[in-house]
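request received
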Amino acid sequence: MELFYSCDIEDGVLRLDAEESGHCVRVLRHRAGDEICVIDGCGTLLRCVLTDADPKGATAQIIGRESGFGSHPYRLTMAVCPTKNIDRYEWFAEKATEIGLDVLAPVIGDRSERKVLKTERLERLVKSAAKQSLKGAIPEVREPVSVKEFIASVPDDAVKMICYCFEGEKKSVREALSEAAGSGLLPHVRKGQNRQEVPAAQPCASPDIYILIGPEGDFSPEEAALALSRGWIPVTLGNSRLRTETAALVAATMVYSEF
Amino acid sequence: MELFYSCDIEDGVLRLDAEESGHCVRVLRHRAGDEICVIDGCGTLLRCVLTDADPKGATAQIIGRESGFGSHPYRLTMAVCPTKNIDRYEWFAEKATEIGLDVLAPVIGDRSERKVLKTERLERLVKSAAKQSLKGAIPEVREPVSVKEFIASVPDDAVKMICYCFEGEKKSVREALSEAAGSGLLPHVRKGQNRQEVPAAQPCASPDIYILIGPEGDFSPEEAALALSRGWIPVTLGNSRLRTETAALVAATMVYSEF
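response:
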């Protein structure tokens, strides 16, 4: 199934931008009257009939809508410090989108070697990964902020997990999620039961989960202390020594496997 | 910590090959008398003193050994059909090594578009990933065999999981491992308790876990039927539509997170 994307939707009619139109009409040779599937990037799949096969700006009539298309029953924000080698970060963004990601928030730590990040390429990557993995929602890619700004910006009632190398008691991601479920923060987590039984959550009911991953040189003690003071739970990703982007993907997978 | 690799070890003395010697002496400028750490690729970390800093063939005296260095309490064989784009397969091999992998067994399915695979690059990748992630053991990379040959070659008493898209009852990886633990196949699986409590298993005690992942076009019905007839457990990796290499890494991570 080939998905297109459009955010230009009005009165049951949508328009594809030049890039999507070219792919639809020139590459895939769709013609007026063909049925195509379009995502709105916010979670809805739109079944459409192509009405104008203009390769620079195709239009289509919406004949059906499926909300929560390819959704997951939680809302995951991954706040990850950009890696020195940006390919590894882009790889993470693509894979996390396939698995289940809602917000990619690049954060710059006190010890980050990379202090700047262009988000355009990331936006293109997560859009194409979302279409490729049949998801109606495209992850939001935020502009980079400092780790301290990010920590301060996260609501108190979210489940907030931080991965760092400092000593001290740490929970597994599963334990942190189970305790959050016990406290009512995570209505849908099923603590190891067959996730296929888990009902699709309404967006409004999706629990907010935040995971914070530091740079190659780890967080500064000040950043770690601030997170702890704001109720972030230190979690362990197991005994393997993982690169930043691998740790981020393992954490996203551990969340995914709990629902 | 910088690790070197040597399989040329005799009477407490080891020799680094030309590549490792060059890296040790030319790049890192180690001199005779320096302490270096070397892995034997079979799980042991060797603490050594460099005795001859020959950039083409350095030798070192072993002064300490640490077995089970960076080990995990299970033995995981990932049998994965090579992807059309080999970069994605190499990426999986590198990441799975970081997380925990013992054997990479490329398998060719009836529907595989890629029928041949050179293993030299994969061997170099997993060796460098093992050193980078501080593991004493380097995953074994097997020569490709057909899916049917592979299925027939796996011992009956191993935990064997297959990921396919055919209909029918499927278990989660966690359920499959928990049931295996219940049947005594997996002495170390802890069903969701804090994995930090899990004692490091002796190699001989490590449960044998096999995961089989098909090509982009899935397994053929004959391959799936053969696997079922040989006791392979169909597992689900959740509701997300994952690429071959992503599915393989998610499966490896799901095993990792159970120990």
